[in-house]
Amino acid sequence: MKGYVVCVYKNIINEDKLEEYAIKARAAVEKYKGKFLIRGGRSTSNEGEKSPRTVVIEFPSYNEANKFYNSKEYQEAHSILKGYAERQHQTIEGS
Fold first, then answer.
1. What is d(CA 95, CA 89) in angstroms, rounded to the nearest whole number?
2. Residue 82 has what DSSP assignment?
């Protein structure tokens, strides 16, 4: 089964840091054979609070998605956002 990384932002404090993070994170996504399905864009909040940004990345497997998240490359990117964005980040198995 495929693996998905779902990231829902609660707030973004610094757009420049988000852009710096995105450049490094993209390289890690590509290395682990990920494919962006959603990366921001227009949205409608049907229930709950509206998120300023949502990202969904598809990986060949759940294990590959977890390898991506735990990789040195992604963790270096992730560290850029500390203190500059608040979000929920999940790895989910799906079809």
1. 19
2. T
Is residue 55 a contact partner of residue 38, using CB atoms and an 8 Å limit?
yes
The DSSP 8-state label assigned to residue 49 in this structure reads P
User: 94, 4 in Cβ contact below 8 A?
Assistant: yes
> How many Å from the N-terminal Cα to the C-terminal Cα in the chain?
5
H helices of the chain, where? 15-31, 62-70, 72-81
- pTM for this model (two decimals): 0.93
Diameter over CA atoms, the chain: 36
Position 31 scores a pLDDT of 96
Please say whether the structural domain 2-42+61-94 has been given the CATH code 3.30.70.100.
yes
Mean pLDDT of 89-93: 97
Q: What is the DSSP letter of 91?
A: E
* Domain ranges, ordered by start, for the chain: 2-42+61-94
